[in-house]
Amino acid sequence: MADHGGGGGCCPPMDLFRSEPMHLVQIIIPIESAHSTASYLGDIGLIQFKDLNAEKSPFQRTYAGQIKKCGEMARKLRFFKDQMSKAGFTPSAKTDAQGDINLDDLEVNLGNLEAELIEINANGEKLQRGYNELLEYKLVLQKAGEFFRVAHSSAVAQQSESASDQAPEESLETPLLMDQESKTEQGKQVKLGFLAGLVPKEKTMAFERILFRATRGNVFLRQAAVEEAVTDPSSGEKVLKNVFLVFFSGERAKSKVLKICEAFGANRYPFAEDLSKQELLITEVSGRISELKTTIDFGLVHRGNLLQRIGEQYERWNLLVRREKSIYHTLNMLSIDVTRKCLVAEGWSPIYATEQIQDALERATIDSNSQVGAIFQVLHTKELPPTFFQTNKFTDSFQTIVDAYGVAKYQEANPGVYTIVTFPFLFAVMFGDWGHGICLLLATLFLIFKEKKYSTQKLGDIMEMTFGGRYVILLMSLFSIYTGLIYNEFFSVPFELFSPSAYVCRDASCSEATTIGLIKGRDTYPFGVDPAWHGSRSELPFLNSLKMKMSILIGVAQMNLGIIMSFFNAVYFRNAVNIWFQFIPQMIFLNGLFGYLSLLIIVKWCTGSKADLYHVMIYMFLSPTDELGENQLFANQKTLQLVLLGLSLIAVPWMLLPKPFILKAQHKRAHEGQSYTPLEGEDDSLQVEANHDSHDHEEFEFSEIFVHQLIHTIEFVLGAVSNTASYLRLWALSLAHSELSTVFYEKVLLLAWGYNNVIILIVGIIVFVFATVGVLLVMETLSAFLHALRLHWVEFQNKFYDGDGYKFHPFSFALLGDDDE
């Protein structure tokens, strides 16, 4: 199967109808040139390697050490990126070209830079912590010193007032706790201790309450709020705090106060009782703060210069590390032959890429000064190759729609070719309004003009999906303008674009030209629906009949296309059974019933007959021999109906019975007397595969095949009816879109216009715009998109598309993402 397609070449044929012809290749690479070979093959990105060491764990593989080394370098680069983002630096996109970088030199360089940066960060944090502590200490000295100064001045005033009664040897050193007891007996005076510090403002009430309870009220607490938030030395966060001063008596009370301070996260600082010492401490602390500030600023400048140096080379280093890691991951997938000192690689590649791969192998041999060149050979296998389509930025989004259902089997007919036209067309049938289509077109053109900018940015989920499908939306908008012109609707308003209406007033007394008194007085309107139909009493019956029949015609045509695609698949894969016992009976059944209905619709349009097609189709089954009477559209119609009905009935057993028996006979004939041994010298892997394949064939179960064919037949017969009915969603959504547009125009815009009030008109216009954008341009667009998607996935693709293949994922440096690990 891998041998289908043409020979090699230099350029891809860009054929979307079938995937690129692939072959399984084997490359025997000398160990000394393995790295260069993998590097060159990653540059061209046209080979998907098979993992020949699947039974080994990642740690048992040959290049596990190199991958670990690359992982460690990637961790250091992530650390640098995190540090740069915190400092507000962005890595430079343009790097200075300084020749090739050796991976070992880069590892040493990154290690030195990381150690230097960690040391700078540690010193900076230590200095910053000391700086924050000194700031808090200064606040404590100022606020607590204020307590002492106020108390001291108060005590001096009291002393001067009662100078005659006060003993000369009395001291004013601890005036904060002056009370009557101190005046009684000098021998009973107790030396008080005190602690000063800062406590978070939110904890002050609890702090005071716990102190009071723990010491049974034997403390004196003074607090002062700090106006601005201070940086906490421990957490580094801005916190509102209060300066506190606690007076206590005895060592037991002191230990309780210390424990409570520790529990509440209060920072304590030494404090002198002497006012002159307090002034000296404030001066000393202020000097140390200015010195630390200078040192911290110098450290930040040094850190910024280091990060700037790293940022200039970051992208280059990051790309090199990711390339090297992907190279060693790839080399770990190869099997190593220790005796011959070489690596054996197997993988899939497009046939057209053969010359490019061979050129890359030759360049790698020359660059690595290897004595022996790599050996390139094609292997023959029955294994199914991966699916590879050459797409560009226009076709890629349409191919993505198909791949979301399932990746095409190798060389299977690709529905993506037809999806480029049919998907936007079916969307437009449901979204037909050339005013709305122009709005979609303008939004899409904006995305296309900003393509280069947005393609390099990280967008949100919804915006990213919209931007990725910009070319799908472009065609959807163009087709919507086309179908809108056919429906003659511009925000639900009809226009006489191509000629005047074919209908005119019957006479001068024709008062209401949109409903009564119209006769055909001119040539038929040349393109689309005549504007005279809009607003008339017969508008809905006319448009419903038109759109319903049009939906059936489109559906039958697309389903026929799907069955025809199954014929091309059968011819390509030389499967005559599918042609005779699947394609032909399916065509007969579908067209014997619904193809005939489509013919009746066209004949009725052409002849202007008043025949009831519902009656014709129902009695074609119930009373096929009855005369048609006034429902006859052409001569010999009854005979044709009998023939088509008979062929449709014959087609059902034709699909069901012969195919399982033919497959059984083919299997029996292919395995009669078949016993063989593999040829000597044949590759072990191919022998195992051949034996496995023959074992699979021996497990042929006729009952399973017959049941599968029965299910397939029933599914097609019932699906022919349900799928045709499913296409009526084209009519339903088109009607819903048209009616919603009419409601917003008549009940919002025209109603606001009728009030002759500027404010009401402005409000009406705003409501109309938001309703149009929100409902018709967003919700209706999404609804029509999903219904068109369903029609392609279910009604169209199930006629021929297996979608059970797997995608071609080549080893390519161009596909490496920032998050690849």
Name a few traits of the molecule:
four-stranded antiparallel sheet; single chain; 821 residues; disordered N terminus; alpha+beta
Explain this structure:
- There is one protein chain.
- The chain has about 800 residues and is α+β, with helices and mostly antiparallel strands.
- Helix content is about 60%, strand content about 10%.
- α1 crosses α6 (about 275-330) and α10 packs antiparallel against α13 (about 470-485).
- The model is unreliable at about 1-15, about 165-175, about 180-185 and about 675-695 (pLDDT under 50).
Cα separation of the termini: 35 Å
What's the pLDDT, averaged over the residues?
Answer: 86
Portion in beta strands: 5-15%
Residue share in helices? 55-70%
Radius of gyration, Cα only, in angstroms?
43 Å
Shape: extended
Total beta strands: 13
Outline the fold blueprint.
Layout: E1 22-30, H1 34-44, E2 48-49, H2 64-87, H3 103-161, E3 193-200, H4 204-215, E4 219-225, E5 230-231, E6 238-239, E7 241-248, H5 251-263, E8 267-269, H6 275-331, E9 335-337, E10 342-350, H7 354-367, E11 375-379, H8 395-405, H9 416-430, H10 434-449, H11 451-455, H12 461-468, H13 470-487, E12 503-505, E13 518-520, H14 539-572, H15 576-607, H16 613-622, H17 637-656, H18 658-670, H19 684-698, H20 702-726, H21 729-753, H22 758-796
Antiparallel strand pairs: 1-10, 1-11, 2-10, 3-7, 3-8, 4-7, 5-6, 9-10, 12-13
